[in-house]
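Page header: ASSEMBLY MODEL / two components / 807 residues total.
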Amino acid sequence: MSEQEAQRPGGLSRRRLFGLVGAGTAGVLAAGATGGVIGHATAGDEASGPGPDDAVPFTGRHQAGIVTPAQDRLHFVAFDVTTDRRADLVEMLQAWTAAARRMTAGRDAGPVGAVDGGQYAPPDDTGEAIGLPASGLTLTIGFGPTLFTGADGADRFGLAARRPAPLVELPSFPGDQIDPAISGGDLCIQACANDPQVAVHAVRNLVRLGAGVVSVRWSQLGFGRTSSTSTGQTTPRNLFGFKDGTNNLKAENDQALDRFVWVGDGDDGADWLAGGSYLVTRRIRMLIEPWDTSTLAEQEQTIGRTKGAGAPMGQRAEFDPVDFEKQTDGAPVVPPTSHVFLANPTHSKTAILRRGYSFVDGSDGLGRLDAGLFFIAYQRDPGTGFVQVQRNLRLDAMNEYIRHTSSGVFACPPGLRDRDDWWGRTLFQH
Amino acid sequence: MSLRDRRPLLLITVALAGLTTAACASSDESGGDADTVTVAATDDACDVGATELPAGTHRFEVANTGSKVTEFHVYAEGDRVMAEVENIAPGLSRELLAELPAGDYEAVCKPGMVGDGIRQALTVTGEAAELSEDESLAQAGTDYQRYVQSQTGALLEQTTAFVAAVEAGDIEGAKALFPVARTYWERIEPVAESFGDLDPLIDGREGDQEEGQDFTGFHRIEKALWETGDVSDMGFYADDLLSNVEEIVSRSNEVTLDPLQLANGAKALLDEIATGKITGEEDRYSHTDLWDFAGNLEGSQAAVQALRPYLEENDPELVTEIDERFAATEAELETHRSGDGWLFYDQLDQTDLRGLSDSITALTESVSKVAAVVAGR
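Prediction written out in full:
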């Protein structure tokens, strides 16, 4: 069916010629990369990486959008499933997969297209991406704990026994101000692209396909990636004005990814989740105004890095090793309450792949920026990943300047193996 | 396909209908010779004097001996309206004529005018007329016109009663009648809105008027009833409302919508719900939005069901999906029932509104596909 759809006129790229060139380029790269993600870009060799307009392969051992070099824009959406019929849910997931396959290739959401249908039918694509390239769009799906077991303990879709033990709501942490209305969800889609209109277009069309089956629970727009996930990317700055993600896990470090990010063959729930990963989201509001009026020294002592170069305190360059032993005037140069000190794998005893975005949701009614970091992390097990890191941040000096306002955890299945595969197959077909 | 393309078909169908009727026991449109089926309606029973009838035109005489206002319908599958009479007050009898081809029907009383009603199977025997696709589409317009006429009759009666209560200064009586009269209005809004000059005068909301235009109609009186509780200066607006409703009723009764207009009207009614009722904008003073919600929903269903025989031939899966989603929306709405009416908008919380919104969104996606099926031939 999807093969046929690809033959239809409406299934062609939105930017016919350019789109095909882009897909071809990405295909060449993918052939040399494990798992269909771009893994061969290296620092100083950026010309060989995908261009910002290119398509990212949709199939592969792992889902795209995890170690894919972080795009510039995010539209994240969490859903409640409103039907109680498993068959309807499966049918929607298959429809979503077909649409995602088309859209990530730079094509319209539906087989007919935005403008190639009859005058009397609503178009099967909403049209705002006409003429736009694939823009590195990735669509990554996750399943929340409530999909398996409802709040009342009900086995909603015969999946209760399939829930891996690590997939449970996150515990509460000191200082949390979590709003349940913008937390959790049965399903989630992370849409990342280099053009915000392409990401929004993708989510909008998936939401539409989900009518009668899912209801949007909450969503979050993000801009300005706050982590690099490849050595080919420069380290971006977050809204505190500091480089963020210098020591992140990178796509090039296969061993670390297997150890900390991908669910392994012997792990709990591996029968359907092996090759997948757990996604944790936290909307972290930054208290921008107090931060902006704190001294440079206070800011640097809080983070544990210099604001200019992003070097660890006591060092000169960004990628210099963090020296926790070094002292000046009898005190550690990297303060033990700084974010870098506490979050570093040396002290957290673990690692996670961060993939967050800045957000500004306007102002808060008191004239203050409603802004911060939409934190996204991928890990092999939330308990030994985010939860362990966050517990270690209990005394983090940065806590004075942030509030966690939303929380989510999702199990992201492995990648799609071929054209007939669909999101959730390994979970639902057994 | 344009509206104009359908006109000749309609004429043919009317002629065919005439032949069918003539062949059937010498009935005619006046119903003078039609046999009479009695319907004894009470608050908890609906005794129809026949369970089997020959194909043709039949006169139903509905006597309401209960204590609630009732209504009587003859439904084909999917609650497609074959005939109905609205607003039968306690102690009254009403007649209606129903032209019934061979088939399985349900005779339905709705005491209190709510819910699914009390239903009795009605089998009509004889030779089933096989309508061609064009005929079945043309028949849809005729069927829907019959529905509109039953609604406009009730609209006029209830608006007259509402206006009388306003003019008598009966605040509580007028408040009770306001959402009931509007129910009939909301059910046929696509027809009413086709008269662009009258719709704003009857149903305009405050602030929607063009410069220099007075704020008139239902909502002007609603504001006085709920905001100030003083209708002493509403006499002019009450008279004006009634005369505009009379005008629109007489015009509506003459309109036959073509199949595409029916399909688009059914979708437009759901959009009305999504944009005006779920937001609480429609009845911003009285908060009786759920009455309007229910009216729009029923009107949309009536328009879709008029097309049902054609849709079943051409896209049975869509019919199933639409049936399910109408049922799901009704079930969602039903959770907000209060007596014979509904909860007020300001009694609903965010979860309630989300449930209603989700069900309307899903239903709209399905109903939006009807036009292409109708146009597809």
